[in-house]
């Protein structure tokens, strides 16, 4: 008699070491004169305000920055994702001006941030 086939299931919780975040900065005055270095420094200042020097010392990278839209893509280690996200959420001012970071998308895969179904436009909808 034949033995029944054996079913094996493999689950990978997260094969990626990094998470990628697509974020945007909203300034109260609508000023868009911010460079990529100032954008990253603002995030670092938010981390320092919330967690101090040592707590804010984990690495993250600004992979892409759009100066016209004030949006960027960040790469952060999985262990620092919650820390970075909370610092972005609680950051409230830039050069004595009210501001807010909006987290648009988060994914362990960079390719997932390349498109957003909420912003999808079809050819017949273009004017």
Automatic annotation (TrEMBL):
<protein>
    <submittedName>
        <fullName>Ribonuclease P protein subunit p14</fullName>
    </submittedName>
</protein>
<dbReference type="GO" id="GO:0033204">
    <property type="term" value="F:ribonuclease P RNA binding"/>
</dbReference>
<comment type="similarity">
    <text>Belongs to the eukaryotic/archaeal RNase P protein component 2 family.</text>
</comment>
<dbReference type="InterPro" id="IPR038085">
    <property type="entry name" value="Rnp2-like_sf"/>
</dbReference>
<dbReference type="InterPro" id="IPR002759">
    <property type="entry name" value="Pop5/Rpp14/Rnp2-like"/>
</dbReference>
<dbReference type="Pfam" id="PF01900">
    <property type="entry name" value="RNase_P_Rpp14"/>
</dbReference>
<dbReference type="GO" id="GO:0030681">
    <property type="term" value="C:multimeric ribonuclease P complex"/>
</dbReference>
<dbReference type="GO" id="GO:0001682">
    <property type="term" value="P:tRNA 5'-leader removal"/>
</dbReference>
<dbReference type="GO" id="GO:0005730">
    <property type="term" value="C:nucleolus"/>
</dbReference>
<keyword id="KW-0819">tRNA processing</keyword>
């Amino acid at each position: 008699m034949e033995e029944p086939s054996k079913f094996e299931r493999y689950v990978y919780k997260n094969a990626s070491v990094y998470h990628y975040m697509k974020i945007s900065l909203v300034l109260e005055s609508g000023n868009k004169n911010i460079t990529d270095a100032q954008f990253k420094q603002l995030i670092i200042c938010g981390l320092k305000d919330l967690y101090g020097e040592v707590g804010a010392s984990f690495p993250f990278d600004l992979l892409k920055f759009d100066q016209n839209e004030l949006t960027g893509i960040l790469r952060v280690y999985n262990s620092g994702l919650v820390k970075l996200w909370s610092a972005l959420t609680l950051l409230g001012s830039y050069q004595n001006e009210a501001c807010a970071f909006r987290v648009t998308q988060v994914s362990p895969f960079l390719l997932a941030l390349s498109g957003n179904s909420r912003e999808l436009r079809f050819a017949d909808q273009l004017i």
